[in-house]
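Example record for the data management plan.
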Amino acid sequence: MADATDYRTMRIPLRHGSGAMPAAGFGTLIADPGLMRTATRAALDAGYRHLDCAERYRNEPDIGDVLQAYYAASGLSRQNIFITTKLWNTNHRPERVEAAFERSRERLKLDVLDLYLIHTPFAFEPGDNFDPRSESGDIVYGHGVTLQETWGAMEDLVRRGRTRAIGISDVGLEELGPLYERASIKPAVIQVEVHPYLPQTELLTYCRERGMVVLAFAPLGHGIRPGPIDDPVVLSVAKRLVRSPPQVLLAWAVQRGTAMLTTPKSADRARENFDITPLPDDAFEQINQIKPRQRYNTVVETGAPGFIPRGR
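Corresponding structural encoding:
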């Protein structure tokens, strides 16, 4: 469990790398460019200091513009904002990693990145098409490259000071274990789906024992209903504490020792999601006992980019 009492300003030190990740982060996967820009600005205004990006989202230039404008208007500097982006599946070949990284860095208008993640452990056919498909519509996977080889190229980015830390997303223990054991530079952060219906207890324990931070995406269950946000236990705790169900779920996530990401699309929702405080011990344990088990993002099982609709 987390010791800090103010989850809004809490930062989690990265043992494998440098810097500290804000416990509350803003995910930038919003399809509409205009809405993405206004939502990102609203999140920054609400107090978010971690932006989670990806080359696959195709909006890094917009985020770079928002950040530059925000620095000028707010008086904050680059050092105040923790920025993550991700290497997409079509760039897993070691010779493609640095070029993909540099394109992301330039689009985001950064000198150095705080965290660079492998988006998934699956290599697709290399090329400019993010979603390579066969005539039958199946994903075309890359061959002749291992996850360990991709990781080696990621390690080079850390050694040369291009990014302060590296990690991997959408991964299970079967991929993470061998990667961790063989890595010269260990993963600093593991980004996976985590919520009370998918607590990832075994993975969380493994990472905690080895100094890796778990960054929870979809802590509200992807907004799919019915889901954790409608669970009777969560609703009961929220009513008793006079908090909203999202605030309860997000506090539970941080209280377990994870960082978390949400994607509020309005200023009101950004303020609500950011305004989280620790739960009483009995409420925390109540949520721990929730029994339904549901994974909403099947990418870790199939390798298919199901979290992004085709054609986007």
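Summary line stored alongside the record: The chain has one domain: 11-292.
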